[in-house]
Design brief:
78% helix, globular, 8 helices, Serine Threonine Protein Phosphatase 5, Tetratricopeptide repeat, mainly alpha
């Protein structure tokens, strides 16, 4: 395999992500990300996507586990922190504010990442209209 060729895991990740971005239902893509995280358990992005899909499909306990793994693997990823905060809100876990503050700091220091999060939030509200936890987090981030 040359350096230019993506690994099987990276290729499957890209394909699954593209399916989601093309409008596939979260429930239709979730198995892909479960397989990706089983095959490559150290890939933080796979866990981040899996947590997001679990949140969209109203699986908060599973999302909490996946988001914790994502943040453990990559503590700097604001989407992972956002997912963790959402899962914590939905499961009644304590410590949400800490993660929100970290996301807010990232948004200040990296406007492009802040824009990506805004797109993600808009996507979440489109796919799960009126999502109470996401509306709450959106308001906190706007403060």
């Amino acid at each position: 395999m040359t350096e230019e060729q993506p690994s099987l895991s990276e290729s499957q990740f890209g394909q699954a992500l593209q399916r989601y971005q093309d409008g596939a239902e979260a429930a239709d893509v979730i198995a892909d990300f479960e397989a990706i995280t089983r095959r490559d358990p150290r890939q933080a992005a796979g866990w981040t996507c899996l947590a997001w899909l679990q949140l969209l499909t109203e699986q908060p306990e599973e999302a909490l586990r996946s988001a914790k793994t994502a943040v453990k693997l990559n503590a700097q990823d604001p989407q992972g922190r956002l997912n963790l905060a959402l899962a914590m809100l939905e499961t009644g876990a304590k410590g949400v504010r800490e993660h929100i503050e970290i996301v807010k700091r990232v948004m200040v220091f990296s406007p492009e990442l802040g824009q990506e999060l805004e797109v993600s939030i808009a996507d979440g509200l489109k796919r799960r209209p009126g999502w109470p936890a996401l509306l709450k987090v959106q308001a906190w981030l706007a403060d």
